[in-house]
Amino acid sequence: MKYRLAFIGFGVVGQGLAEIMVESRDELKQKYGFDFDVVAVSDKVKGSVYDPNGLDLEKLLDLVRKTGEITGYEEAPHRDWDSLKTITDTNANVIIEVSWTDLKTGEPALTHVRTAIEHGKHVVLTNKGPIALAVRELEELARQRDVKIRYEGTVLSGTPALNLGLKNLAGAKITRIQGIVNGTTNFILTKMENGFSYEEALKKAQELGYAEADPTGDVEGWDAVGKIVILTNVLMGGSITNDDVEREGITHLTLKDIEEAKQEGKRWKLIANTEILPDGSVKASVKPVKIPLSHPLASVSGPINALTFTTKYLGDVTIIGPGAGKLPTGYALLTDLLDIHRELSSKEI
């Protein structure tokens, strides 16, 4: 089976996946039996092209590097289609949703995903919004339409947080998940331990591209809230929303707070936490916590992310890795594509 892929969005993450696919095409086919053509790319800024027989992915990447656009791809017989027309009218059977998304509404990605599933197309995405807001609805819709939806990259980029919980820890009975799920705040807190003020650490994070010009989503904990909602609902059987999460950012922490924690043998981290309470309900929070230096999460520094899964039968399991970035997040999409391929292939046997 050859997969026909359409990119909705072709920014940093989409290009990351494209670069991996150009480099690994032969290996993906020989080692995993995964063969593909990219037939369409639709990006609100860079333009839109569609060729039912397949596009030259390497040429598309080269055009973006040189011009910032893909409109110069003259061989494409169809161009200037918007995202929804690309989803509904192309011959793609897999939609790669990597557009910009508002975490509060999930749009436009939520509409993209719904539309793709309703038209019988598999979906992989890295946008938190649709999964944090509507994972139950989207999973049920995919089941009804007999298509697959995968979203590993919504939590820790390419570090396999969801796959670890759903597959490797299946049956272990996860009772708690706690971790560092925002690299920007972890970088800032690490710098503060090295003597930087909050303002100085934030400025450095912005200079290095770890923080946006408006860092509110990171430093006030909103990004982490979206991720803990996903972990809670996907791995813990919860049905919570962003409003159910107790949230506190790091903006009030001072060098004095950092130093006092050091003297206590502890370290401040912005910890996302979800746990099953004795009555069976689930409680989630995102807030700064002083954790002992002996805790596995205490040694995680800089923009790195980590999660500790507490299980009934295996005890604590900690996973550490990048939580953002061009190639790591592109790789997350690849793992989802391969997962769909494995599942579809097993049905054919």
In a few lines, what is going on in this structure?
This protein is of the alpha/beta class and 349 residues long. It has 13 helices and 13 strands. The chain has helices spanning 12-32, 57-67, 83-89, 109-118, 128-145, 153-156, 161-168, 183-193, 198-207, 216-219, 222-235, 255-263, 326-348, and strands spanning 2-8, 35-43, 47-50, 78-79, 94-97, 122-125, 149-150, 174-180, 246-247, 266-276, 282-292, 304-311, 315-322.
Q: Could you name the CATH class of the largest domain?
A: Alpha Beta
Low-confidence stretches: none
Number of helices: 13
Looking at CATH, the homologous superfamily of the largest domain is NAD(P)-binding Rossmann-like Domain
Percent range for helical residues? Answer: 40-55%
Q: What is the number of domains?
A: 2
Strand order of the largest sheet: 4-3-2-1-5-6-7
CA radius of gyration is 21 Å
Question: What characterizes the major β-sheet?
Answer: 7 strands, mixed
> Which class do the helix and strand fractions yield?
alpha/beta
* Shape, per Cα inertia axes: globular
In N-to-C order, the SSE pattern is EHEEHEHEHEHEHHEHHHHEHEEEEH
Q: How many DSSP-defined strands?
A: 13
CATH architecture label name of the largest domain:
3-Layer(aba) Sandwich
- Taken as a percent bin, the fraction of beta residues is 15-25%
Mean pLDDT: 96
What quaternary form is this? single chain
User: How far is the N terminus from the C terminus?
Assistant: 13 Å
Q: Output the CATH topology of the largest domain.
A: Rossmann fold
